[in-house]
Amino acid sequence: MLTAGIDMGSKFIKTLVLKxxxxxxxxxxxxxxxxxxxxxxxxxxxxxxxxxxxSSIDHITSTGAGRKAxxxxxxxxxxxxxxxxxxAELIPEARTVIDVGAEDGRGIKTEADGKVVDFAVNExxxxxxxxxxxxMSRALEVTLEEFGNLSLKSDKTIPMNAQCAVFAESEVVxxxxxxxxxxxxxxxxxxxxxxxxxxxxxxxxxxxSVALVGGLSHNPGFVDAINRGLETQxxxxxxxxxxxxxxxxxxxxxxxx
Amino acid sequence: MFDKFINWYENRxxxxxxxxxxxxxxxxxxxxxxxxxxxxxxxxxxxxxMLGSHEPQDVTEPHIFGMFCPFCRDVLAQGLKGRYDYMKGxxxxxxxxxxxQAFTSWKNHVPSDWAFYLYMPNKLQTxxxxxxxxxxxxxLRKSIEGWTGHAIADETxxxxxxxxxxxxxxxxxxxxxxxxxxxPVTGLEAMVMVASSYFVDKKEHNAELKRILPELKSRRLDRxxxxxxxxxGSENDDTEFVKMVESVGATVVTDDHCTGSRYFWNLTQFNxxxxxxxxxxxxxxxxCPTKDWEERLRFPHILEMAKEFNVEGVILIxxxxxxxxxxxxxxxxEYLAKEGYPTLFLEFDVTVPVGQMRIRVEAFLExxxxxxxx
Lengths: 257, 374
Description:
Chain A contains 8 helices and 9 strands. Chain A is of the alpha/beta class. The longest helix of chain A has 23 residues, at about 180-205.
C-alpha cells in the first residue's frame, strides 16, 4: 500500500511517501503565499524521489496549521494527532512529545500507539517557537546555524523574560548595547524559548521518555537548553521536521484499510 | 425554530427601545447575574443584563486598567459609546472587582438617573449570609421605590418571582432535551435562548419558550451530534466560538456559565417571607467562583451536570485576566481528569482567534476519539 502525508506547516511544507511502512521519498518546500500550490509541488517532489505516480498513491492525509489547503489530501488529521503518531512509530517508548515548529509549540502526553491523552499548545505568542530564534539570529547578524552552535560556547545564564517575542527582542538589544558577548546572548535566547516550552509541557506532565520533534530540534542551542530545563535528555529522531508528515502518512494507511 | 431568540439577541437595543415605547417604565442595566432582577421587574421596570459587543474598542483605557478582564471593559465600552443611551438606571450586585470597576466608571461617565451598588456578600457558606443579604435587598427595594415614587407590593414581588421561576423551569426543560443522544437543540441555540432571556420581558420570553417546547419534542436536527461537550467558565456569549465548535464534529450539550445555566438553574422557594425567599434563591444558586468559599461547591455541581448530560469532554473557557476563574482552572482540570473528563483550556478575549482555536478544538475532539467525523 502506498500512502503519503503532507504536513502544511506555517513556514515549510513537508511531504513523505510511504510504502508498507518504508519511506520511499520525502520533500520540503517553503509554504509561501500559495500553500495549495506549494503542497502540490512538495508532493510532486516526494513522489518523484519515491519514483511513483501521485495517482498510484492509495491515500493521502494532510496535517499542520494549513491542512485544509492541501487539495490532494483525501483526509486530514490535526498536528497534535500526527506528531503523536509519528513519534509512536520512531520512538515507541516516548510518553511525552514536544513538537516545536516555526510558529507553534506543542506538548503532548501520549500512551502506547500514539494515543493522545492530553496536550497544550503555545498561546498567542511565538516566544516559544522557531520564528523567535530566527528573529533573534537576525538581530545578532549570524546565520541560524551559527546561532544554535554559538550558544553552546556560553556557560553564562542571563535571565530573559520572553513573555513576548517583540519585547524580548528589545531585551536582546539592551544586551547588545551592554556589549554582552554574542554567545551569551544566544544562550539567553535559547534558554528563554526552552523555558516557555518547558512550562507549557509541564501543564500536561512530563513522563519519560521525552521525544523532541519539529524543525527547532535541529538547533543544538535549543536542545541543550531544553535538556537543562527538563532535567532529562530528550530523544530526537532522524529528520525530526518530517515526523508530522510521517504520522499523517501512517494515519493514511490506517484509513485506507 | 429559534429565530425569535436570535432576532432578539441580535437586536437587543431595538427590543429595549420598543419596550420603552409600549410600557410606562424604565430600563435598568444590571451588572452581573447576581442582580436580583425580580425587584426591578416588580417595580414596573425592565431589567437588562449588560453584555459586550465582541468588537475591539479603544475607549476604556482611561477608566479601567488594561489587565482587567476583557468582558468588564467591553461592557463599559458599550456605555461610553452611548449604545445603552435609553437606559435610566444601573444596578450592580457585587461579585468581582473588575465588573465593579465597570459599574463605577459607568456611574461616573455615563449619564443615568439611578445607580445602586448592592452588596451581595462573597461568603455565602455561613448562616449570617441570609439575614445579611435580605437586609441589603430591603435597602435596594427602598431605593427603587424612592426613585420610581411607587411602593412595590409583596404580592407583586411574589407574582414576579413566580414569573421568573416559570422562565427558569421552561429553560431547564429545553436544557433537559439536550441530554438525549441526539439533542434537538444546538449549543448555539441554547446560548442565544439564555442570552436573550437577560433582556427580554420574561412574559414574552416564556410565551416563546412555550411555543417552541412542543415542537422541540419532535425536532430532529439534520446534523451529526459528534463529540458531546460541556463549556465551563465565566461570562460567555461568544456565538462565533460555539458556531465554530459545532462545525467541526461536536455539539455543546450543556454549560456552567453565568450567561448560561448558572443564571436560571435554581428556583425561588416560597416560605412566606418573599424578600427572604428571593435572597435565598440567589444565595443558593450554582455559585460563581467569587462566592464559592470555603468549600468549592461548584466542582461537584459541574461534575454532576457532566454526568447527567453524558458529556465526553469539557472546554474550560477563561476570560483573560479573570482572577476568580483563574483560581479554579488548575484544580478543576485535575478534578475533572480524576473523574474521567478530559479538558481543553482556552483563553478568551474580546474577539477570539477562531482559526487557532479551531485547530485546538479539532485536536481535542481527535483525542476524545471522534475523528471519524472529519
